[in-house]
Amino acid sequence: MAVPAGPEQAREQEQSGCYVYGIVPADVEPAADVAGVGDPPARVQLVRQGSLAALVSEVDLTRRLGTPEDLRAHAQILDAAVIEVPVLPLRFGTVMGSKDAVAAGLLAVYQEAFAAALKQVDGRAQYMVKGRYVEQAVLAEVLAEIPEAARLRQHIQDKDPDATRNARIRLGLIISNAITAKRAADTRALSEVVGPHCVASVVREPTHELDAVHLALLAEITRQDDLDQALSDLASDWAGRIEIRLLGPQAPYDFTPALPPLRIR
Amino acid sequence: MSPPGGGGPSPTGLADVIETILDKGLVIDAYIRVSLVGIELLTIDARIVVASVDTYLRFAEAVNRLDIAQEKEGLPGLVGGSRPGKGTRITKGVLQGVGDKLREYAESERRPAPRRPRSREGY
Questions:
Q1: Measured between CB atoms, which of B10, B37, B111 is closest to A64?
Q2: What is the C-alpha separation between B119 and A244, in angstroms, rounded?
Q3: Among A110, A137, A261, B47, which residue's CB has the most CB atoms within a 10 Å radius?
Q4: Calculated CA dihedral for residues A86, A206, B39, A83, nearest 10 degrees
Q5: Are A34 and B112 in contact (CB < 8 Å)?
Q6: Chain A residues closer than 8 Å to B15 by CB
Q7: Could you tell me the CATH number of the domain that includes residue A162?
């Protein structure tokens, strides 16, 4: 009869896992003393397998992750990497049993898919364009463009809110719909402006009712200046109406491939 | 709106980080994954915009409060008015934002990026 592993040993194994940040080519040099997730933060290491490597760190499985520091560490490690090497970011919170499991169960299994995806993002990074409507300006636009909105505004002006509740709801609905339409039009305009300067783009869902544009781009890092210039011109056109921010370069979070389902042996 | 007189770069806020790393990125097959670690933040469910009666009433109240003087000056001024000075400032903010970030990473000692010993062609 086989001798079962001691309970002490088994428990120790279960308490420690291998947090995976992302996939990079195997020929990268591990930077010294990069702090990862966890408290205290564990050192980031490389696990190599064939032509691939994973950025990992040891993690205590008895402690939940998800503090602001954990979230920032995950993003910063990947965003710092993308400037130097192609990287495929994993979603926050991916943990495997051990370094061996990462090598054999992840890198080896998806060798081809990862290598192909890394080739696709080589020299490229993600940039986020976020725009928020200036509330007063966009409301003024709606009033100018939709006569019913202007009428309803006059109707509710200086009246008891409860007595004009239905008119207010109607007015708010018109505004909400108008902003949705403007968002679509402005997103199209943005896509046209950045189109020549990026290789792919993804429209993200709005996360705020005054969100104007929310676009993830994949662009050549060496062409970042062109992207900057195009967005600067657009920012001038939109001044006073939409305020835009450009974030990046980031790891290509929105441009990772869907992995083929794992064949369970 | 950019902070008045600030004109600084756009920092990546925690909200920007959250909506990116919790929602995007490679998802590994659950079969080989030990666990998706618990998130302790409480603010994550506020990510999707669902228009509601509350939203409508808020918009109506915002319209009600719109400055009449502003309206009299003419909507075109608000909508299409050229404000080159302002545009330039935003533009600078954008440019600096990216540049600063690049420099920050290049100089970062806390999280230096992994580097390649060989040229890209070597890969």
A1: B37
A2: 36
A3: A110
A4: 20
A5: yes
A6: 207
A7: 3.30.70
Tell me whether B116 touches chain A (CB under 8 Å).
yes
Domain end marker among A122, A146, A178: A122
d(CA B50, CA A208): 9
Contact B34, A97 (CB under 8 A): yes
Residue A192 pLDDT: 97
Residues A74 and A175 in one domain: no
Query: pLDDT tens digit string along A4-40?
Result: 444 445 445 568 889 999 999 999 987 778 899 998 9
Those residues with Cβ within 8 angstroms of residue B108's Cβ, 6 or more apart along the chain or in another chain = A80
Q: Of the given ranges (A132-136, A188-192, A198-202, B65-69), which has the lowest mean pLDDT?
A: B65-69
| Closest chain B residue to A32, measured at CA | B112
For residue A235, give the nearest of B14, B29, B94 by CB distance: B94
The answer, for B43 touching chain A at a CB cutoff of 8 Å, is no
For A146-178, what is each residue's pLDDT tens digit?
Answer: 999 999 999 999 889 899 999 999 999 999 999
Judge: A239–B12 Cβ closer than 8 Å, yes or no.
Answer: no
The CA distance from A7 to the nearest CA of chain B, in Å, is 19
Q: Decide if B59 and A175 are in contact by the 8 Å CB cutoff.
A: yes
Q: CB B117 to CB A55 under 8 A?
A: no
Helix (H, G, I), strand (E, B) or coil at A124: strand
> Taking 50 as the threshold, does the pLDDT of residue A241 lie above it?
yes
A122, A157, A175 — which closes off a domain?
Answer: A122
Whether residues A184 and A208 share a domain: the answer is: yes
Query: Do residue A130 and residue A250 come from a single domain?
Result: yes
Instruction: Specify the pLDDT at position A81.
Output: 94
* B106 at A interface, C-beta within 8 A: yes
Question: What pLDDT score does B87 carry?
Answer: 33
Neighbouring residues of B19: CB distance < 8 A, sequence distance ≥ 6: A204, A207, B47
